[in-house]
Write a structure and sequence with these properties.
The chain has 24 helices and three strands. By secondary structure, the protein is an all-alpha fold. The protein has a domain of 122 residues. It has a three-stranded mixed sheet with strand order 1-3-2, with helices on one face.
């Protein structure tokens, strides 16, 4: 999943800007050892002070990152972009350090369980952000997925219902030149520090920038909101708002992209690094070790992760071979992969057919969820197509969280670009991951948690938990009546293999010196995915080092904990209660999740 947060909130930048705004769908209540049911002892002044600190820092994060506030449905800062000047980033870092110092002045001894957990997670997140700042990720603010050239994607999460909504967007457009100049300054600093992304990534961006330099403002994605108005806004006001928006695009946005184009072509692209691995950066090995810890919430080294990936590839390959034998295919693994990639029976002819099939599949899964979950989210979700201007560079699908206040549903975005490369056998597993019971269920339940500070309901998004849950959810398809067709079952194994391969190729490129082509070749040899998908995914791993490690490590831990609970409790094991427990405290580091499950097991043994 790629959570579609606002501009500059990519996995690198988010480490250094907005300490508690989270990195992902930048993300439940049952028996809860963490204690979400009670918030503390009456009259304990420490709890009052702690929550005041949590709230103050949350509000600071929203002010400093208006795009994230917009994502959450908070409209207070919809007329501006975040201040991306180096001075502002340094001030934010200083504020993080000061916040951690203030936190440490409050003794957590004897706090109720929920408050102790709040304290621990808040301290860990601040320290993690401070640690990440040392590697200056903010001087690489642009990649082929996120950056200035995709800033118009923010319109996907904005609501345009009033005149102010439109005038706020126009104000943002009018200040786009400032954002551009700040971004250029960050990138210039990156060149000076020899912290520049890989050529394999940057070579994709000139075409993206060129598409933003339009002859008519009406052809710009930034103008899209002005093409449709609610009836509540009169025709005369519609014309005035549209004219103002067009003027901002023409006078501010397009000239800014022209400046950016010149800088990118002449002064930035020539400095791209030829090695794809982040280890080529100053302190690159230490940076990658930090990113591995950050995304997995474990102490595993890159080499340990690499070896785990190789073992998982071997195990899953054996299961895939069993299915190949079951369907009576006589050729090799490579032959079977070619068959799955090319046989017309596995593909829809049009993107519209593909999108409709995804919608129907989601509704089918919805009806089966109560068998595995005691608590389901109130917030609905929908299915949308990935915007065509970004679809060629995007992965197969992603999830866009709903607004924190429930005013906007969550959305599962399916990539309809080249439908002849989007096989039917991946649809069940993909829907299970991105929508239900995966990301939508987990993130929406977290947003609906009561009695917790906002940094836990709307800020924390531990990649290993969020993506581990979604990958675990893929396997729940068997219990939800999916994968009855052997090819869909093979699709589920293909996606699990995909995540196992990530452990190998991500560490391969970023810690062991692999080339992009080595990573592609490994994926081609072990998965039946289309060549285009493989190349897009490998480029994502290059751009976001370490993020891809979290999926398999998180899934393996959740599966391990379920197996442990089933063995310990026997007939007392309740799958609905187990899932409610796992999701009942929101996203957590894996060691905290393990503590919760062990406490739950002990409690149910006694009961």
């Amino acid at each position: 999943m790629q959570h579609r947060f606002a501009y500059l909130c990519n996995p690198l930048m988010a480490i250094a800007t907005g300490a508690l705004i989270g990195l992902a769908a930048c993300a439940s209540a049952a028996s809860d050892p963490a204690g979400t049911a009670a918030t503390g002892k009456a009259g304990d002044d420490r709890i009052v002070r702690l929550h005041a600190l949590y709230d103050a820092e949350w509000q600071r994060g929203l002010r400093e990152n208006p795009e994230n506030a917009s994502q959450l449905g908070d409209k207070r800062y919809n007329d501006r972009w975040g201040d991306r000047s180096i001075a502002a980033i340094e001030r934010s870092h200083d504020s993080d350090v000061a916040a951690l110092q203030r936190l440490k002045l409050i003794d957590p001894s004897g706090l109720p369980p929920v408050e102790a957990l709040n304290y621990t997670l808040f301290a860990q997140q601040l320290q993690d952000t401070i640690d990440g700042y040392a590697f200056h990720p903010y001087v690489m603010p642009v990649d082929h997925i996120y950056g200035l050239q995709s800033a118009q994607d923010l319109t996907q999460v904005l609501s345009f219902e009033t005149e102010k909504d439109y005038s706020d967007w126009t104000a943002r457009l009018a200040s786009f030149g400032t954002l551009t100049d700040q971004t250029i300054a960050l990138m210039q600093q990156g060149v000076a520090e020899q912290r520049v992304p890989a050529c394999a990534i940057l070579n994709k961006i000139p075409d993206q920038i060129a598409k933003q330099i339009v002859a008519k403002p009406q052809d710009s994605g930034f103008y899209a909101p002005f093409k449709q108005f609610p009836k509540a806004i009169g025709a005369e006001h519609q014309t005035a708002l549209a004219n103002a928006g067009a003027a901002a695009v023409q006078n501010d946005v397009v000239p800014a992209f022209k400046r950016f184009q010149t800088f990118f072509k002449n002064d930035y692209l020539p400095h791209c690094r030829t090695q794809v691995g982040v280890s080529a950066l100053p302190d690159g090995a230490a940076y990658y070790a930090y990113l591995a810890k950050h995304h997995t919430t474990t102490e595993m080294t890159p080499e340990q992760i690499h070896q785990l990936g190789l073992r998982e590839v071997t195990r899953i390959r054996a299961e895939m071979d069993q299915v190949r034998t079951e369907v009576g295919f006589k050729g090799s693994f490579a032959d079977f992969s070619k068959f799955l990639r090319s046989d017309p029976r596995f593909y829809f002819k049009t993107g519209d057919e593909l999108l409709a099939a995804y919608g129907a599949l989601g509704k089918h899964i919805d009806g089966e969820l109560p068998r595995l979950f005691g608590k389901l989210p109130r917030l609905p979700y929908g299915v949308r197509a990935v915007p065509m201007d970004s679809a060629p560079y995007q992965t197969t699908a992603y999830y866009q969280p709903g607004a924190a206040d429930g005013t906007r549903a969550g959305f599962f975005y399916a990539n309809l670009y080249k439908p002849e490369t989007r096989p039917k056998w991946e649809m069940e597993v993909l829907t299970s991951h991105e929508a239900v019971p995966g990301h939508h269920l987990q993130i929406s339940l977290q947003q609906e948690l009561e009695g917790l500070p906002e940094f836990r309901t709307n800020g924390l998004s531990y990649t290993a938990f969020v993506e581990g849950w979604a990958l675990y959810s893929e396997s729940l398809g068997y219990e939800l009546g999916l994968y009855k067709d052997p090819y869909s079952r093979y699709g589920q194994l293909t996606y699990e293999m995909w995540r196992a391969c990530r452990l190998v190729v991500d560490t391969g490129m970023h810690a062991k010196g692999w080339t992009r082509q080595q990573a592609i070749d490994f994926m081609v040899a072990n998965t039946p995915r289309a060549q285009n998908d493989i190349e897009v995914e490998v480029d994502r791993y290059i751009a976001w080092p370490g993020q891809a490690l979290a999926y398999k490590i998180g899934q393996l831990k959740i599966r391990e904990l379920r197996t442990r609970a089933e063995a310990a409790l026997g007939d007392r094991f309740d799958i609905r209660a187990f899932h409610d427990l796992v999701l009942g405290s929101g996203a957590l580091p894996l060691d905290v999740l393990e503590h919760n499950v062990d406490a739950w097991i002990a409690q149910n043994k006694q009961g």
